[in-house]
Amino acid sequence: MTTSSNLLFVSSSLFNGQSKSREIAGEYISGWRRANPSGRVIERALSPENIPHLSGATLAALGKAADARTDDEAKAVAFADSLIEEAEAADTIVLAAPMYNFAIPTTLKAWIDHIARAGRTFRYTAQGPEGLLKGKKVVVVVSRGGFYTTGNAAAASMNHQEPYLRTVLAFLGLTDVTFIEVEGQAIGPDVAAKGLEAARAAALSLVALPVAA
Ligand SMILES: Cc1cc2nc3c(=O)[nH]c(=O)nc-3n(C[C@H](O)[C@H](O)[C@H](O)COP(=O)(O)O)c2cc1C
Questions:
Q1: pLDDT along the chain (213 residues), means of 10
Q2: What CATH code is carried by the domain that includes residue 94?
Q3: Which domain range does residue 79 map to?
Q4: How far is the CA of 41 from the centre of ligand 1 (A)?
Q5: CB of 92 closer than 6 A to ligand 1?
Q6: Contact 75/61 with Cβ under 8 angstroms?
Q7: Is 1 among the domain residues?
Q8: Probe ligand 1: pick from 16, 95, 100, 162, max atoms within 8 Å of CB?
Q9: How many domains does the chain fold into?
Q10: What is the best residue among 19, 46, 99 to mutate for testing ligand 1's pocket, by most ligand atoms within 8 Å of CB?
């Protein structure tokens, strides 16, 4: 079944090779490829080397007419524009987001800071803010060393990863969001393996697999 044709994959682990969030996102994407054989996958593997913080200089450049920008300003605007264009062009967006210090990696925050642009991906109306990245499916794989979803209120209150992502994605108009949780990755090998397998099953159940002939 072909449901969509353009998938943007944004990963943000510092451990690309051994990343659990990336591995489980990869499971989902493999299934998506089987269901969308002619679909296109664009990957943004974020790292501190390839995405800067949103700077005051870039914000100032965004406020200038194109022909008034210096070369550096034009480059910074082109980079931010390219991130927005990738998000706009996608039917499906997959985010792989480790928990770092109870929140998301700073690289992923920088990506969000670059794509959240008034007048382009959201706007303010008389009724309040309106997200403009509409009609897309989002799958977010969140990985964690510990457990935050076991019903323990104290642990849940420390989770600033998933609630933040839900808030900012909804603000941008992304409301069809499914989270896959990979928990317990720092507790020990058995617990980690169990957490990974549960997440793998959740990822595979999300994709519509072709029926065997
Ligand atoms: C810098 C850093 C900070 C972390 N902070 C937390 C944390 O606050 N809570 C937690 O449960 N795990 C924390 N962890 C563990 C990671 O969330 C866990 O290893 C997860 O699997 C990382 O995702 P990845 O495998 O995709 O890289 C941290 C790991 C690193 C490297």
A1: 77 94 97 94 97 97 97 98 98 98 98 97 96 97 96 94 98 98 97 97 82 48
A2: 3.40.50.360
A3: 6-206
A4: 26
A5: no
A6: no
A7: no
A8: 100
A9: 1
A10: 99
